C-alpha cells in the first residue's frame, strides 16, 4: 500500500526584490518586483508502507523543500501530494500523530529541561498511553544508550547525545512514517553507527516507513535500499543503489603490484588511473572482457606479482552521477 503519493509537485519560492537605500525602500513598496526560484520541479514518486528511502542530491537540489512539503510545513506551488491519504498542509494535526520528524539542524527539545521532562511533555502533547510510553522510552533508552543523560538538561548534551534524544523523541508516539533531514550531520563515527543501527531496527522490526536526506552515503548503505536522487529541483533517479551502479557502469579498479616497474603498460580493456612505479591502478572497461581475463593477459606480458580488485563503492557511484549531471547539465534528463 502506498503511504506517500507525490504527483507532478513543483515548489517555486518567490522573493520580493529590495532596492538599496531609503529611496529604494520607498520604491520597493510601489514596485513589487520579485525573483522566482524553482526548488522542486514537477516531481512524482510514491513510497510504500515499510520502505526506507534515501532522498539524495547536491546542495540546493531541493531536498529539504520536499521534506517540508511532505510534513506540511510548506505548501506546493502546484501538483498533488498525499501523505497517509491526507494533503499534508491541510492535515497537520491528524498527520502529526502518525508522523515523526527529525531535522538534524533544528531541535524539538526543551532546551532547559532534563531529557526525561521533554519526553513527558511529548507524552501529554501526543496523549500517549502510559504503558506504551514507558515501553517506548525503555526501548529507545536501551537501543540508543540514553540512560546516562536522561536527567541532564538538553543544553548540556553533546551533539551526538542530543541527536539520539531527538530521534528517540520522534518515535515515542509510534509514528508510521519518520522523516529525517540529515540525522547524522556532524556526528562522530560511533554515534553515526549507533543511529544507523537503530533506524534500521525501527524500519525492519517496527515497519516504520523512513524517508531520509543525507550527504553521508554510509547512512544510505546502512538504512535505505531505495534512493531518489534530485538535482536542480528535478528527480533524476529512482531505484536501488545496485541498479544505479549498473547504469553508471559496474566498473572495477584493478591494482597490480609488479616485481619491478615495467614502465608503460598496454593491455586493451585496462586504462591507467594511478602510476606509482611498481604499483599501478587501472580501471577495467565496462561491459568488456572479464577482469580475470584481462589480468591473465597482463601477467603473460608483464612481471605481475599481486592483484587486488575493488568495485565502485556507493560514494564513488554517487560522485560519478553528480559529475555527469554537472558536466552535461542534464537537469532535464532522466537517468532512471
Ligand atoms: N525560504 C526560501 N526562500 C527562497 N529560496 C529558498 C528558500 N528555501 C530554499 N530556497 C532555495 O531553494 C533551493 C532548494 O533548497 P533546499 O534547501 O530545498 O535544498 P537542499 O537540497 O535541502 O540543500 P542542502 O543539501 O544544501 O541542504 C535552493 O536554491 C535554495 O536557495
UniProtKB/TrEMBL annotation:
<dbReference type="InterPro" id="IPR003593">
    <property type="entry name" value="AAA+_ATPase"/>
</dbReference>
<dbReference type="GO" id="GO:0005524">
    <property type="term" value="F:ATP binding"/>
</dbReference>
<dbReference type="Pfam" id="PF00005">
    <property type="entry name" value="ABC_tran"/>
</dbReference>
<keyword id="KW-0547">Nucleotide-binding</keyword>
<dbReference type="InterPro" id="IPR017871">
    <property type="entry name" value="ABC_transporter-like_CS"/>
</dbReference>
<keyword id="KW-0067">ATP-binding</keyword>
<protein>
    <submittedName>
        <fullName>ATP-binding cassette domain-containing protein</fullName>
    </submittedName>
</protein>
<feature type="domain" description="ABC transporter">
    <location>
        <begin position="4"/>
        <end position="257"/>
    </location>
</feature>
<dbReference type="InterPro" id="IPR003439">
    <property type="entry name" value="ABC_transporter-like_ATP-bd"/>
</dbReference>
<keyword id="KW-0813">Transport</keyword>
<dbReference type="InterPro" id="IPR050763">
    <property type="entry name" value="ABC_transporter_ATP-binding"/>
</dbReference>
<dbReference type="InterPro" id="IPR027417">
    <property type="entry name" value="P-loop_NTPase"/>
</dbReference>
Amino acid at each position: 500500500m502506498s503511504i506517500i503519493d507525490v504527483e507532478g509537485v513543483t515548489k517555486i519560492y518567490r522573493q520580493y526584490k529590495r532596492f538599496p537605500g531609503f529611496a529604494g525602500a520607498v520604491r520597493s513598496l510601489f514596485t513589487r518586483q520579485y525573483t522566482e526560484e524553482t526548488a522542486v520541479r514537477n516531481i512524482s514518486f510514491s513510497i510504500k508502507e515499510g520502505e526506507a528511502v534515501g532522498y539524495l542530491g547536491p546542495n540546493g537540489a531541493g531536498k529539504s523543500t520536499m521534506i517540508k512539503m511532505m510534513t506540511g510545513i510548506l505548501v506546493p506551488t502546484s501538483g498533488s501530494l498525499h501523505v497517509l491519504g491526507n494533503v499534508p498542509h491541510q492535515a497537520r494535526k491528524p498527520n502529526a500523530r502518525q508522523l515523526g520528524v527529525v531535522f538534524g539542524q533544528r531541535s524539538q527539545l526543551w532546551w532547559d529541561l532534563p531529557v526525561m521532562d521533554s519526553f513527558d511533555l511529548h507524552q501529554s502533547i501526543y496523549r500517549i498511553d502510559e504503558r506504551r510510553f514507558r515501553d517506548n522510552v525503555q526501548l529507545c533508552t536501551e537501543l540508543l544508550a540514553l540512560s546516562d543523560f536522561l536527567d541532564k538538561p538538553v543544553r548540556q548534551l553533546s551533539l551526538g547525545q542530543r541527536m539520539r534524544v531527538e530521534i528517540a523523541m520522534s518515535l515515542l508516539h509510534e509514528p508510521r512514517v519518520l522523516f529525517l533531514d540529515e540525522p547524522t550531520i556532524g556526528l562522530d563515527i560511533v554515534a553515526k553507527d549507533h543511529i544507523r543501527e537503530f533506524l534500521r531496527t525501527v524500519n525492519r522490526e517496527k515497519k516504520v516507513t523512513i524517508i531520509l536526506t543525507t550527504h553521508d552515503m554510509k547512512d544510505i548503505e546502512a538504512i535505505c535500499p531505495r534512493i531518489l536522487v534530485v538535482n536542480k529541483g528535478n528527480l533524476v533517479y529512482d531505484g536501488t543503489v545496485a541498479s544505479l551502479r549498473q547504469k553508471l557502469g559496474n566498473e572495477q579498479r584493478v591494482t597490480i603490484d609488479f616485481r619491478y616497474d615495467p614502465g608503460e603498460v598496454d593491455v586493451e580493456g585496462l586504462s591507467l588511473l594511478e602510476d606509482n612505479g611498481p604499483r599501478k591502478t587501472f580501471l577495467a572497461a565496462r561491459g568488456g572482457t572479464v577482469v580475470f581475463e584481462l589480468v591473465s593477459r597482463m601477467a603473460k606480458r608483464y612481471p605481475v606479482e599481486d592483484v587486488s580488485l575493488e568495485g565502485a563503492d556507493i560514494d564513488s557511484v554517487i560522485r560519478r552521477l553528480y559529475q555527469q549531471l554537472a558536466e552535461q547539465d542534464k537537469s532535464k534528463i532522466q537517468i532512471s
